[in-house]
Amino acid sequence: MKIFDLIIIGAGPAGLSAGIYAGRAMLDTLIIEKDLEGGQILQTSEIENYPGSLDIESGPTLIDRMVEQVKKFGVNKVTDTVVDVSLDGEIKVIKCEKETYHAKTIIIAGGAAAVPIGVEGEDKFRGRGLSYCATCDGPFFRNLNVYVVGGGDSAVQEAIYLTRFAKKVTIIHRRQELRAAKSLQEKAFKNEKIDFILDTVLKKITGGDVIEGMILENIKNGNITEIKADPDDGTFGVFGFVGYKPKSDLYTGKLSTENGYIITDEDMRTNIPGVFAVGDIRKKSLRQVVTAVADGAIAAVQTEKYLEEMA
């Protein structure tokens, strides 16, 4: 039975960063990824806030370089889907659809995903005017109109943030009242750049290469409203904040979590020895590629220390 020093579950920025550091440390490492390397960042056409990215950087170009680094350091990778995990004991067991793998340590880098708005045109315009991250994509909508779908804390917080860049921000919410904390609501109501369309749902996003229009429906009277981009702008932005879900179902009841996010300490350690969690799947205050790669580096270094103590 083959026993790896380390298995990394997920090959987004956090998992790849962990792989780079683990490979440099000469740990016998396996990365398991069910899809393409990169995760959510593959949907990002431009990255301008990652340190050192002076020229136009995209999610795919950044991930391509990280993947090459992982290969350079001799890290193994398989494409498989994890269906169950056994994390207790000195040897961890990762059961996948194709094979079962064993390791002394595990780094969980499964990530998280924005809950889709659930409207016609969503798949077409994702990354082409439709975003789920104001911090990531807000600067690309300077002096444009922006619409935020949602009424909770995240939606209102991100709407306030987007006023730094947008010409006008309009919150679209299906209820008459927002669900966000009263303090956040007060800030939004006082902000002259924020408008509200309540009792309304987004039904369809339209356009060619970018968003050019959308259709709204008032849920009380059924009235349909079509919104078109300002002719001088040619487009507008739509941000979806109807929820965010960590990909942590496999670990429910096995690791300490809060609202589905895995709880770790500052060294990425979970409540089970030898098991670490990194990136968007763990409880943290900022989910960005720069914090994901930092998580991965920390976890890999701590994994090496853990293995040394086991020896």
Description:
- By secondary structure, the protein is an alpha/beta fold.
- It has 2 domains: 3-114 and 244-310, FAD/NAD(P)-binding domain; 122-240, FAD/NAD(P)-binding domain (3-Layer(bba) Sandwich), CATH 3.50.50.
- Helix content is 24%, strand content 29%.
- It has 7 helices and 19 strands.
- The chain has helices at residues 13-24, 59-72, 122-125, 134-137, 153-162, 182-190, 289-310, and strands at 3-9, 29-33, 76-79, 82-86, 92-96, 100-108, 112-114, 130-131, 145-149, 168-172, 194-197, 200-207, 211-218, 224-228, 237-240, 244-246, 257-258, 261-262, 275-277.
- Strands 1, 2, 3, 4, 5, 6 and 19 form a 7-stranded mixed β-sheet that branches. Strands 8-15-9-10-11 form a 5-stranded parallel β-sheet.
- Helix 1 (13-24) runs parallel beside helix 2 (59-72), helix 1 packs parallel to helix 7 (289-310) and helix 5 runs parallel beside helix 6 (182-190).
- It starts with a strand and ends with a helix.
